[in-house]
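Reading a protein record of the kind used here takes little practice once its layout is understood. The reader may check this reading against the record printed directly beneath this paragraph.
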Amino acid sequence: MAIRQLSEEQIRTWTLEEKDRWWLANVWRGDMPQLTLRSGLTGMFLGGVLSLTNLYVGAKTGWTLGVGITSVILAFAMFKLLSAVGLGRDFTLLENNAMQSIATAAGYMTAPMISSLAAYMMVTGQVIPMMQTLIWIIAIALLGVLFAFPLKRRFINDEQHPFPEGRAAGIVMDALHSGDAASGLLKAKLLVVTGGAAAFLKLMQSGAIMEKLRLAFLTVPEFLDGWIYRIGTLQILGIDLRQLTVRPDTDFVMMAAGGLMGIRTGVSLMIGAVLNYLILVP
């Protein structure tokens, strides 16, 4: 079912109190479980696991990604399976929403580790002690929560701005809980299968591991032009393309990042890269 929302005219003309009353009458579901023990524990578990993937992606791309949509699909499938075998009951829509909020918070907790803290350590050449890192991240988390209350009331309750990632997670949740359960389980299976395939391919990129497994001949090269450089060099205006960092990469994270961006943004980035690295720099 479509997610109910105010029209542009109502957003512009209604007072905050009128908007709150509309939400209470049309959206609020007081009889549906929301922040339950299992939603909290599930959010902590999935957020903890998925935040590790966030660290890896962040270190490779410099992006900080939420894990809301992934956690929504995994939690839905997990409790659907538990319900099918008689070990639990289905997750409610609002439990899933509370869960993804917790998981997303855990995912974003990794942000300082691939931005400010990482930059500080690179510039100073000193590794920040773990205890100081924990204190810093906890302090930022507390400030984030405290600032979220007034900001949410202003920008979401009053001005009704859709938070892009939260809206995307809401649409996925709505489709899962109001549609066919089989489609939700299929999405979860696709996540697991593609995640496993990506991990396996990344394993094949490790020369040391493939060497120990005596499968070195199956090693996937980090750069596809490695074979070309065994014969000669690729140059533009006398400059080796490797010096310009122009190389066809086999990094699956970057391919996935391109998929998240979309074709228009990806093509724009490619044109900019060609202009900068193949024309201006040489």
Q: What stands out?
A: Strands lie at 235-236, 239-240. DSSP finds 13 helices and two strands in the chain. Residues 221-280 form one domain. The chain has a mean pLDDT of 84.
